[in-house]
Automatic annotation (TrEMBL):
<feature type="active site">
    <location>
        <position position="74"/>
    </location>
</feature>
<dbReference type="GO" id="GO:0009089">
    <property type="term" value="P:lysine biosynthetic process via diaminopimelate"/>
</dbReference>
<feature type="binding site">
    <location>
        <position position="13"/>
    </location>
    <ligand>
        <name>substrate</name>
    </ligand>
</feature>
<comment type="similarity">
    <text>Belongs to the diaminopimelate epimerase family.</text>
</comment>
<feature type="binding site">
    <location>
        <begin position="199"/>
        <end position="200"/>
    </location>
    <ligand>
        <name>substrate</name>
    </ligand>
</feature>
<feature type="active site" description="Proton donor">
    <location>
        <position position="74"/>
    </location>
</feature>
<feature type="binding site">
    <location>
        <position position="171"/>
    </location>
    <ligand>
        <name>substrate</name>
    </ligand>
</feature>
<comment type="function">
    <text>Catalyzes the stereoinversion of LL-2,6-diaminopimelate (L,L-DAP) to meso-diaminopimelate (meso-DAP), a precursor of L-lysine and an essential component of the bacterial peptidoglycan.</text>
</comment>
<feature type="binding site">
    <location>
        <begin position="75"/>
        <end position="76"/>
    </location>
    <ligand>
        <name>substrate</name>
    </ligand>
</feature>
<dbReference type="GO" id="GO:0008837">
    <property type="term" value="F:diaminopimelate epimerase activity"/>
</dbReference>
<comment type="subunit">
    <text>Homodimer.</text>
</comment>
<dbReference type="InterPro" id="IPR018510">
    <property type="entry name" value="DAP_epimerase_AS"/>
</dbReference>
<dbReference type="InterPro" id="IPR001653">
    <property type="entry name" value="DAP_epimerase_DapF"/>
</dbReference>
<dbReference type="Pfam" id="PF01678">
    <property type="entry name" value="DAP_epimerase"/>
</dbReference>
<protein>
    <recommendedName>
        <fullName>Diaminopimelate epimerase</fullName>
        <ecNumber>5.1.1.7</ecNumber>
    </recommendedName>
</protein>
<dbReference type="GO" id="GO:0005829">
    <property type="term" value="C:cytosol"/>
</dbReference>
<keyword id="KW-0413">Isomerase</keyword>
Length: 259
């Protein structure tokens, strides 16, 4: 099979993307996805996405983790796919697409900044030392004093594979408050390692960082791969609406590969 692919990244979260609106890549197998994402023997990426035709929407999003399995929503992936859709000729000011967690809309600021609307959140589990919530993907959020000192791979893996989460998995976010926002580092299931950034994880961390007042918040977020912003309105003790994940999404390169 001959593939024409594009490599995109959003704050270091990188993806292989292909235009599948004619269905030419429908036969792609999980093993082939894994091989394409492999950082030694493939193109190398945190995940792979297909731009699909979706009736009633501008396009559909199909997302695979680097392990080759279809996965839940990827926020940075969604932003990169929106940027790719624009490159493929979808030039509307606002794009609507369907992902595994439901409909999304997106807008642009400049050439490479994408604002992605996320799903509302109505439930947050809060423990003594953590939060657990779903922002399109499940996230365990733990606040720490020195996020740079954390062994994200070891500590994140321990939580991801504990008795509660081992079967379904969870992403694990370590968060430190900064002078004007938060710094987030994430262990991602499906990648099974730390990634430079995680959109749904950044969103989960930003929601939990809000104060008690019910109002609109804008949270600057720093990741290893760069800066993002999360905008949302807190409407209850554990209820959030109008959530937007905002940040850069850029083309790295394109090419052809035979598998």
């Amino acid at each position: 099979m001959n593939l024409h692919f594009y490599k995109y990244q959003g704050t270091g979260n990188d993806f292989v993307i292909m235009d599948n609106r004619d269905g030419r890549y429908d036969a792609l197998t999980n093993q082939q996805v894994h091989d394409l994402c492999h950082r030694r023997f493939g193109i190398g990426a945190d995940g792979l996405m297909l731009l699909n035709t979706q009736p009633g929407y501008d396009f559909g999003m199909k997302y695979y983790n680097a392990d080759g399995n279809e996965s839940s929503m990827c926020g940075n992936g969604g932003r990169c796919l929106v940027a790719f859709a624009r490159k493929m000729g979808l030039r509307q000011d606002t794009l609507r697409f369907l992902a595994v967690d439901g409909p999304h809309e997106a807008s642009f600021k400049g050439d490479d900044w994408v604002n992605l609307k996320m799903q509302d959140v109505d439930w947050v589990e809060q423990g003594n030392l953590y939060y657990y919530l779903n922002t399109g993907s499940p996230h365990f959020v733990k606040y720490v004093d020195d996020v740079q000192a954390i062994d994200v791979f070891a500590d994140g893996r321990q939580i991801r594979y504990n008795d509660r989460f081992a079967q379904e998995g969870t992403n694990v976010n370590f968060v430190q408050a900064t002078d004007n926002g938060i710094f987030v580092r994430t262990y991602e299931r499906g990648v099974e390692d730390e990634t430079y950034s995680c959109g749904t994880g950044v969103t989960a961390a930003a929601l939990t960082s809000a104060g008690t007042e019910e109002k609109t918040y804008r949270i600057p977020v720093q990741t290893l791969g760069g800066g993002l912003e999360v905008l949302f309105t807190k409407t209850g003790e554990r209820s959030y609406r109008d959530i937007w994940l905002c940040g850069p999404a850029t083309l790295v390169f394109e090419g052809n590969v035979t598998i």
